[in-house]
Each structure stands twice: as C-alpha cells, then as structure tokens.
Amino acid sequence: MNMVLLKKVEELTLYLIEKDRQLADQQKINQVVKQQSDLLKSQQKQIDELKKSLDNLNHKTHN
Fold it and tell me: Global pTM?
C-alpha cells in the first residue's frame, strides 16, 4: 500500500513540475505577445498621426 501511495505521489509531483514548466513557458509567450501588441499600438498611433498630417497638407494645398 505504501509503495502505491509513494508511486502516486511521485507521479503527481512530476505532473506538477511539468505543469509549472508549461505555465512558465506560457507566461514568457504572453510577455512577448504583450510587447508585440504594445509595439503595434505605437505604430498604429504613428500611422494615424502621419495620415492626419498628410490630410492637413492635402487640405492646405487644395485651398
């Protein structure tokens, strides 16, 4: 009986170690995705500002 319990504890311990590793990997991926999202937001803001500037220039040249 004790050997069965010991084996089960060992299996569960290894399972938890693997899940912890998977969680750490997922957190790293999430961090990269957040950085990419922040970069895309910044780039979109720059694009919007450039479009606005271009629209203003076009408006001035047509007046």
Answer: 0.71
What helix, strand, coil percent values describe the chain, rounded to 5? 95, 0, 5
Q: What angle do CA 44, 50, 52 make, to 5 degrees?
A: 105
- Extract the residue ranges of the chain whose pLDDT is less than 70: none
Q: How many residues does the chain have?
A: 63
| Token couple for 19 | 């899940």
Q: Is 63 helix (H, G, I), strand (E, B) or coil?
A: coil
Cβ-based neighbour number of residue 2 at 10 Å? 6
